[in-house]
Design goal:
alpha/beta, 17 helices
Amino acid sequence: YDGFRLFMMEELAARFPERRRWTPADMEVVIVEAFSVILDQLSDQLDRTRAEAFLETARRPDSVRRLLAMIGYDAVAMAGEAVKIPVGDAPTSETTEEQMARLLRFLPALRSLLGDYSESLDQLTPLQQSELNSFIADGADAQTSHLNSVQRFLDNTPEFVERARNQTLNRYWAAYPHVMDTVRDAGPRTIHTQKRMVTEKDYAERMEDHPLVLQGHAFSRWSGAWSTIYCAVMLSNNISLDSPLTAAAIGDEERLSMLQDDVDSFYQVREIESPDWSSEPTPRTVLRPYLDAYRMAAQEIFLLDAEPVGINISLAVRIDGNYFQSEVRHEVLERLGSGLDGFFEPGRLQFGEDLHSSDIIEAVMALDGVKVVCLNRFKRVGQRYPNQADAGRIQLDGLEVALCDNNPQEAARGILNITLHGGRRG
């Protein structure tokens, strides 16, 4: 204001040098001050507009969110649970209580934005519109039919869901500016994070990001006209790429439900359509959309299973006199098993990683009550493979991965025999 006023007053004085006296009551001064106020407002507006065009100086949450999106950082998808971003798609096996909690996050947006979507409301029946309005009025007491009507509206209006998610993040950043500043700084750093699958290393690392994949390995071969990428994966519970994802294959119903929710969340962040779990898809069907979304265009790629190598192990263990044999046997089976924290837990051993007898002995000797361990048999399953107990090493190569499931019905996937000496029976 002062600068504009001073400039115009100096211009007046230069144009009319014969006039020596200017007072605030003069019409010329009044007009100059009015112009100065308007120019000051326009200048402030111009400064704010220019500031909102750059990530470093932007102060409005919606501006920061859009600028981050320009460099490929989806702030809404990356927001933590504390932000309580609403989710329009119902996850697998959602209970009524979980549906209620999920849809209640849409209440602020329903109350402020619903008027812009009258055409979508026309697609609902009068009863569904009434139930939607009842939910907006008092969502905490909504019945199941009310929730279903809200979900139907969300399914028919993806634009509303996107606006509601953006509005939730904007409100959170407005209430907690320091969180917005943290994301403002973190966003540009993600530019240096490789998200596409370009090199063989990229294929292996990006596949390992998937909740279904424990280990990834990629290599290329020249086909005579172009290079073909082969990507081998180790999956949860050592299932194969073409086995249906069922509760029996994963372990139990709870683990399957958790895996499905993890995959749904993983695909939602990356804007990939979630699998149809009702059709019991195979891992290959689940992984292929993710692979196609991030691989290089026109790059031929094949998914391969790991090559399981069953290991035949026979141990003789001497136990301290104060320990029961049954307890020590159970501990040895757990330590060398394929369960959680077991030596042969899926994903612990790498592709082509050699197996050493010293690692087996060290794992068993670490258990309480074990005094001496003697490794009598240490070999691949099959009569044609020699015993490597003396050599102390089983060599693996390529896509081979050591297994020892110790399941008599599937002896090819590894056998573990334990002979106990000493200790107390029982």
